[in-house]
Amino acid sequence: MYSIIVHGGVGAVSHDKEEAVIAGVRGAVKAGSDVLASSGSSLDAVETAIKILEDNPLFNCGTGSVLTFDGEVEMDAAVAYGPALGFGAIAGIKNIQHPISLARMVMEKTDHVLLQGSGAQEFARMMGIAPHNPITEERRVQWREYREKFLRGDAGDWPKLKALMKEHPEFMHGTVGAVAVDEKGEVTAGTSTGGVFLKLLGRVGDTPLPGAGTYATKFGGASSTGLGESMMRTLITKTACDFMRMGLDAQGASSGAVNMLSNILRTEAGIIVVDNQGGVGFAQNTPQMAHAYFKKGMSEPVAGL
Ligand code: ASP
């Protein structure tokens, strides 16, 4: 029984972009489910789905990633392969098209779990990955606007930045994730992001950290979105996987994990989860989280905000 679910980040989607965002997650989940339908692995399905979202400038990952305070793009990505507790991740990578594929290479071609900064950049070069500029004009315009506000004192440090995020929920919008289980019952989770607008150079979010933004075990897998600093402190995806080890299904695990975070920290959070029986689940404490899923036997994916 295979299934796959993707998310396109928590945070409000402006009206004029709703259709395109829903079409984006639907297209990604369809491509991932096609891999699973032709007996492909959950690992291939997750990578396929996330690469499509990384190429879609509407989402905050790959091309279209948000800019740091200094006007750069520094991307984080991770892949978690449940059966072997496999994990590969990169942090602070610039100038490549598909961070998720590089994260997979870290898992498959090195003895490490996480490469960051210039070392990750050098690894990409060694792997023969061509340079690619992920900065779009639309993000550059947003960056100028937010940075001006910040410099006027609207957001002078992290607490103020949080207030600015409340005013502009699109700050948080667009990290992507995918979680799949294949016919063999093997679960993979992946997440890719540009992080959060105006982050300090060198800031690493939850996405590439095991158990924070991304995690998978033989019982299930999860990918989260929202303020990364809170995911790191609560280990939200590890919590969801622990719930599945204790017998909850994917929906129970996702609701339980988001409730746990909301009760403690009250910051924005969303999660997608798949269990090894083919169950899918998602939960968020925000009004919207773009998502789509497909389970074997369905004729079309379900997609929404
Ligand atoms: N979790 C991401 C980060 O903090 C942001 C997001 O999910 O939108 O890097």
TrEMBL record:
MF terms (GO), sorted A to Z: hydrolase activity, acting on carbon-nitrogen (but not peptide) bonds, in linear amides; peptidase activity
Q: Where is this site: Cleavage?
A: G174, T175
Q: Keyword Chloroplast on this protein?
A: no
- List the InterPro entries: Ntn_hydrolases_N, Peptidase_T2
Q: Which residues form the active site?
A: T175 (nucleophile)
Under the heading SUPFAM superfamilies, the entry gives: N-terminal nucleophile aminohydrolases (Ntn hydrolases) (SSF56235)
* Keywords, alphabetical: Autocatalytic cleavage, Hydrolase, Protease
One Pfam match: Asparaginase_2
The Gene Ontology CC terms held by the record are: cytoplasm
Answer yes or no on keyword Hydrolase. yes
CDD domains, per the entry: Ntn_Asparaginase_2_like
Annotated residues for binding of substrate: R203, V204, G205, D206, T225, G226, L227, G228
Which terms under GO biological process does the entry name?
Answer: proteolysis
PANTHER family this protein is in?
Answer: L-ASPARAGINASE (PTHR10188), N(4)-(BETA-N-ACETYLGLUCOSAMINYL)-L-ASPARAGINASE (PTHR10188:SF6)
Q: What is this protein called?
A: Isoaspartyl peptidase
